[in-house]
Amino acid sequence: MNVERVAELIRELLVEIGEDPDREGLLKTPLRVARAYDYLTSGYKTDPREVINQALFESSVNNMIIARDIEVYSLCEHHMLPFYGRAHIGYIAREKVLGVSKLARLVDVHSRRLQIQERLTAGIAEEIMDAAGARGVGVVMECRHMCMMMRGVQKQNSVMQTSTVLGSFHDDQATREEFLKIIDRRVDW
Ligand code: ZN
Fold first, then answer.
1. Domain-located, residue 189
2. Which of 18, 113, 139, 170 qualifies as a FRET site for 133, CA 20 to 30 Å off?
3. pTM tops 0.85
4. Could you tell me if residue 133 is inside a domain?
5. Residue 164: which CATH number?
6. 84 CA to middle of ligand 1, Å?
């Protein structure tokens, strides 16, 4: 991303919303905003497959591996406003397991782009399924969307839940139920 160019655009945006970009409090704002966007969209510069490939190791375990409450911060592609919440990931490995920290890293790489929650959820699940060759994967995500809370319908307390189940999580009801039972909890954040 060309940070200088984006800073110029933000300066123009400030003028258009009726602000004075030359007043003291706003002098450094365009550059700050540009740097923030550079970070918040840094997922475009990272290949999620590389994140996974660096962290795969051989294992003979075939039980369910679950990472719960992974923090999610993303931007909705409709309004470029934040949505945030938690992701819960479960998978059953075949021969390779993923380092635990890499699941969180994978969520970050997919989140730091313009997203819709459904695609974010599915993208993470498919990545784990394909790259790790898992038997099955389940991803459940619960997020609050600023575009709903601050504008539009102003539903401050609504949480959107999305899920993707692949492989044995899709085909085998017992597996799916085990996953959902383990991650089940009320939203308390
Ligand atoms: Zn939105």
1. no
2. 113
3. yes
4. yes
5. 3.30.1130.10
6. 12
Domain identity same for 56 and 145: yes
**47-52: long-range contacts at Cβ-Cβ below 8 A with a sequence spacing of 24 or more?**
48/106, 48/109, 48/110, 48/123, 48/127, 48/131, 49/127, 49/131, 51/102, 51/105, 51/106, 51/109, 52/98, 52/102, 52/106, 52/127, 52/128, 52/131, 52/132
Ligand 1 center from residue 180 Cα (angstroms): 27
Residues 134 and 151 in one domain: yes
Same domain, 59 and 140: yes
**Ligand 1 centre from 153 Cα, in Å?**
11
CA of 83 to the centre of ligand 1 (A): 8
- Each of the 189 residues of the chain gets a pLDDT tens digit; together they read 899 999 999 999 999 999 999 999 999 999 999 999 999 999 999 888 888 887 788 877 778 999 999 999 999 999 999 999 999 999 998 888 888 788 999 999 999 999 999 999 999 999 999 888 899 999 999 999 999 998 877 777 789 999 999 999 999 999 999 999 999 865 555
